[in-house]
Amino acid sequence: MKFQLDQLAHRREHLQALVARQRIELGLHVEPLRAPLALVDRGMEAVRYVRRNPLLVAGASTLFFALGKKGSGKWLRRGWLAWQLIRRMRMK
Length: 92
Hints:
93% helix; mainly alpha; 0% strand; YqjK-like protein; YqjK; single chain
């Protein structure tokens, strides 16, 4: 019985060491994908926001086309800055 327990303990240690090496190796392979995956996450977040707020998107599009080329750029910049400010205030 003692021999079997010793074998199991040894096997467990071996497997734990193997798993630790595999985690490190996996981390090295995944690290280059971290930034692209973060970008995909932000894109998915934007899609979810648009799905939750379709009237807001429709209203913004209507306003954009109503203002024309010259006026829309100025208001888009202002809107973008306001949105960024609101997001930062919510995070704090």
